[in-house]
């Protein structure tokens, strides 16, 4: 039986990372528990000091199909290449120039949200072409 899973990111600013990835993936910030107008109200009611309100954040797929993505604050910064990364499927079913045009458009949109482009690999017979980028905190991901 398949297990549910979530993807967890260590980061410096969970709120900002959640906002970026929600836009990148078409997800939404996880709503606060029932009975609370927002997360600040919930965290305050639970006795979490205001300076710790940005220690965690999460995003969810509004259709309930994709995994939850959780962001947790850690003291250390990113120091090396990710061993695991996301492939953001931005051009499924497209090939050749049509695929690369779609990937370029998505790369431009994500750059407007704070992502950075690292490099582009054009189609070469074995691969269909991708654009490698980083999120605002430097975590690598591919537009696929």
TrEMBL record:
One Pfam family recorded for the sequence: Glyoxalase_6
UniProt name for this protein: VOC family protein
UniProt cross-references to Gene3D superfamilies, sorted A to Z: 2,3-Dihydroxybiphenyl 1,2-Dioxygenase, domain 1
PANTHER family referenced in this protein's UniProt entry, alphabetically: CONSERVED PROTEIN, HYPOTHETICAL FUSION PROTEIN
Limits of the Glyoxalase-like domain: 6-143
InterPro entries per record: Glyas_Bleomycin-R_OHBP_Dase, Glyoxalase_6
